Amino acid sequence: MNIDTSKPVMVTGATGYVAGWIIKRLLDEGLTVHATLRDSGNEKKRAHLDLVAKDAPGTIHYFDADLLDDGAFADAMAGCSIVFHTASPFVVDVKDPQRDLVDPALLGTRNVLNQVNKTPSVERVVLTSSVAAIYGDNADVENTANGKFTEEEWNTTSSLDHQAYSYSKKLAEEEAWKINKQQDRWRLVCINPALVIGPGLNPRGTSESFRLIKQLGNGTMAAGAPRWAFGLVDVRDVAEAHLKAAFLPDAQGRHIIFAESKDFLEMGQLLRPHFPKYPLPRFGLPKPMAWLFGPFANKSLTRRIVTRNVGVPFRADNSKGIRELGMRYRPAEESLREFFQQLIDAGRLKKR
Ligand code: NAP
């Protein structure tokens, strides 16, 4: 991969879990990174980036920018050749899905890409989309042509009332393609990762990924784990996919990015031999029990979500990323183990 280090590149949402590893990789390549965040004065939130930048050949510059502020990305984008747009809230439990998820995802994408249209130096945009833009529930696989999700599919089942995070990602990616198709100067390349796991550069990360894996070890699933399957991918592999999307001359379109599919019980089974003192799940929660009690245990686990996901395999085709981006994946067991260990080391999990 030939990386031109003569022009800066921009990364939105620099404090985020996924962005951290992308920035580390860019700095290691010797690039100048224009990192946008909401509060550059908060040194604690960017301490892990400062640390990485100290030992890397590249240079980092911070810029304040909120997704909802029109024109906020102008200064950070000036002179950049590539824009990595990662910023978007990844939380499931929100009060107001329109305000807390859809607005920052959709209006933020529009704001960033309108600025790209005004910034002649930008040649390529790499958008951190998600498999959530491709499907809403595991049961949606019934509607696919070949019994697997591919880059051809779009999520048609999520809404403000059901899987609102997935809905926000689908609206954002659709908008990105719409804006991209109205011009021919810059190329859009999308990375569509499944559930991202693995140690964060910042061990106190707040991405939903941390909350989900923490639930495996804090006793929430000790009485039984819902057999809800996800594609899993290491955060370092997701960062690699972004670099390939940015610097491989022929990278184009969308890319489903994941290594393996596992449900919560299978994740617990992979972790148990390494962490015998933690209350990892030993049994699957029968689907009728998950349906009946899920909403009481966790208000995001609605009966519709249980019906359409629990006990339904996750089937998706990751071959385009392997073929066109040359992706190689860490095994899920390694990523899970290192992630779980990080939660312990950071004091975020207690022994039973
Ligand atoms: P994260 O750690 O919560 O990062 C989200 C980032 O978005 C944070 O830096 C956050 O900034 C920023 N952000 C949120 N609202 C903003 C606003 N109004 N203005 C400016 N910045 C805002 O989550 P993540 O897991 O790294 O997610 C990063 C991207 O990857 C998202 O686009 C997500 O949809 C995508 N993704 C994640 C996964 C996964 O499993 N983690 C899977 C597929 C795709 P603050 O720090 O200021 O809040």
Strand content: 5-15%
CATH architecture: 3-Layer(aba) Sandwich
The count of β-strands is 12
The assigned structural class equals alpha/beta
Order of helices and strands: EHEHEHEHEHEEHEEHEEHEHHHH
Low-pLDDT sequence parts = none
The biggest beta sheet is recorded as: 7 strands, parallel
Describe this entry's structure for a reader:
The protein has 352 residues and is of the alpha/beta class. The protein has a single domain, classed as NAD(P)-binding Rossmann-like Domain (Rossmann fold), CATH 3.40.50. Helices cover 39% and strands 14% of the residues. It contains 12 helices and 12 strands. It has helices at 17-28, 43-55, 74-77, 97-117, 164-181, 208-217, 235-247, 264-271, 287-297, 303-309, 319-324, 332-345; strands at 9-12, 32-37, 59-64, 82-85, 124-128, 187-193, 195-197, 225-226, 229-234, 256-257, 260-263, 284-285. The strands form 3 sheets. The chain has a 7-stranded parallel beta sheet with strand order 3-2-1-4-5-6-10, with helices on both faces. Strand 5 (124-128), helix 5 and strand 6 (187-193) form a beta-alpha-beta unit. Helix 4 packs parallel to helix 5. The chain is globular and about 55 Å long. The termini are far apart.
Keywords:
352 residues; single chain; alpha/beta; 12 strands; globular
List the helices and strands and how they pair.
Layout lengths: L8 E4 L4 H12 L3 E6 L5 H13 L3 E6 L9 H4 L4 E4 L11 H21 L6 E5 L35 H18 L5 E7 L1 E3 L10 H10 L7 E2 L2 E6 H13 L8 E2 L2 E4 H8 L12 E2 L1 H11 L5 H7 L9 H6 L7 H14 L7
Parallel strand pairs: 1-2, 1-4, 2-3, 4-5, 5-6, 6-10, 7-9, 8-12
Antiparallel strand pairs: 9-11
Helix pairs in contact: 1-2, 1-7, 4-5, 6-12, 9-10
The protein binds NADP nicotinamide-adenine-dinucleotide phosphate (NAP).
